[in-house]
Amino acid sequence: MGAAALKLDVRPLTPSLGAEVAGVDLRCVDAETAAALRVAWLQWLVLVFRDQQLDLDALVHFTETIGPADFAPPQEADVRSPLGHPEIMIVSNVIENGVAIGSLGSGEAPWHTDMCYTDVPPIGTLLYALEVPPEGGDTTFVDMYAALDALPDVTRRRLTALRMKHDRTYTAVGTLRLGEREMADVRLTAGAVHPIVRTHRETGRAALYLGRRLGAWICGLDVNESEALLDTVWNVALSRAQTYRHVWRGSDAVLWDNRCTMHRREAFASDARRVMLRTQVRDALPGGPS
Ligand code: SIN
Q1: Ligand 1 atom closest to residue 89's alpha carbon, by position in its atom list
Q2: Is the CB of 265 within 6 Å of ligand 1?
Q3: What does the pLDDT look like over 185-230, one tens digit per residue?
Q4: Which atom of ligand 1 is nearest to the CA of 138?
């Protein structure tokens, strides 16, 4: 049966961003189902799968139906390979025997795209919930195709010719990343440079690629001018584009497209437990990142 013929139960969560896929066990996704999931992922950008029972191997195995699993990035502490799976990052606030079992704590993780500070950012991220707090810790996504469309023509044209430096000094929660040092001048920080408007190589659509606000610099502009333009663009992106807020349940798995979404994680009580496993899909598509 071809992908077009395989009918998935896809239930939209907003008119254009985010869909729940029912009736799929991520432990046993065959080629037809994988192809149909990819079509749904490219259309809805964020896919939610409830009630999944994934062990570490199954998590990596499903990730690899999307593309090769990328190594987890270094975080604020050396938690890179605590599970014997260098592809899996533990996102957690839990402290055991005085040591954090994972990254990103319980504070807010402001809007960002995963690993934008690398030369070849992952195309997707999969986050699987083992334990969730009774409240807080929701993750909200924003559609960056729509964010680009929401900008005035003149701004869009200007941005199309510009590239941005994505600072890698800090983690998504603003803590110093292992092996980095503080740098006050945004023009001199370590990181990667990407076009601000990137063409998604699978959909052919243009999306705004902002990465994260902290430490960002539009190459070639005076720092004040860069800050003012970034403020304007961020404001439009977050006020006019479609968002989807995911309220986690244990055993949820959420797959998002890093090429055309950003996300933000809300804070939650530091004495509540949140334990998530994250994998990321390496960009191995022909043509390299735009
Ligand atoms: C992340 O940004 O990788 C984690 C998001 C979350 O904890 O919800």
Answers
A1: 3
A2: yes
A3: 889 888 999 999 999 999 999 999 999 999 999 999 999 999 999 9
A4: 8
User: Where on the phi/psi map is residue 68: left (φ > 0), alpha (ψ -120 to 50), or beta?
Assistant: beta
SS (H, E, C) the chain: CCCCCCCCEEEECCCCCCEEEECCCCCCCCHHHHHHHHHHHHHHCEEEECCCCCCHHHHHHHHHHHCCEECCCCCCCCCCCCCCCCCCEEEECCEECCEECCEECCCCEEEECCCCCCCCCCCEEEEEEEECCCCCCCEEEEEHHHHHHCCCHHHHHHHHCCEEEEECCECCCCCECCCCCCCCCCCCCCEEEEECEEECCCCCCEEECCCECCCCEECCCCHHHHHHHHHHHHHHHHHHCCEEEECCCCCCEEEEECCCEEEEECCCCCCCCCEEEEEEECCCCCCCCC
Q: For the whole model, what pTM was predicted? A: 0.94
How far does the centroid of ligand 1 lie from the alpha carbon of residue 265, in Å?
A: 6
Would you state the pLDDT for residue 76? 63
Instruction: For ligand 1, atom 5, name the residue with the nearest CA.
Output: 265
- Residue 13 has which token pair? 């969560």
C-beta of 139 in contact with ligand 1 (< 6 A): yes
- pLDDT tens string 231-266: 999 999 889 999 999 999 999 999 999 999 999 999
Number of C-beta neighbours around residue 23 at 10 A: 9
